Amino acid sequence: MGSYDEVEIEDMTWNEELQVYQYSCPCGDLFEISLEDLRAGEEIARCPSCSLYITVIYNPEDFQEPPPDAGKAPLPATPAPVPVQ
How far apart are CA 76 and CA 2, in angstroms? Predict the structure, then answer.
C-alpha cells in the first residue's frame, strides 16, 4: 500500500507542545512527523491510530540544524598587551 496522500509542510499544523507537525487523518486522529525526523530527511508522517501514512513535501534545507555557533555573539578580540614604560 502506498502513501495515502502527498501534503505540503505549509498545509500541516505545528504542535509546539509535542514538537511535531500534524495533519488530519481520515480515521479521526492526526498524522505526525517530528522536527527531528524532518532534519534527518524523513518524509513520511504516520498516523498512530491506523495504518495510513502521508508523504510530506518540504525543502530539507529549511530544516537543517543551525551550526553550533549560530546565534552566539562573537568573542571579543583579546586586546594586545600595552608595553609599560
Answer: 55
pLDDT tens per residue across span 3-29: 999 999 999 999 999 999 999 999 999
pLDDT at 22: 97
The 3-state secondary structure of the chain reads CCCCCEEEHHHCEEECCCCEEEEECCCCCEEEEEHHHHHCCCCEEECCCCCCEEEEECCHHHHCCCCCCCCCCCCCCCCCCCCCC
The correct CATH number of 6-59 out of 3.30.1330.10, 3.10.660.10, 3.30.460.80, 3.90.1300.10 is 3.10.660.10
pTM: 0.73
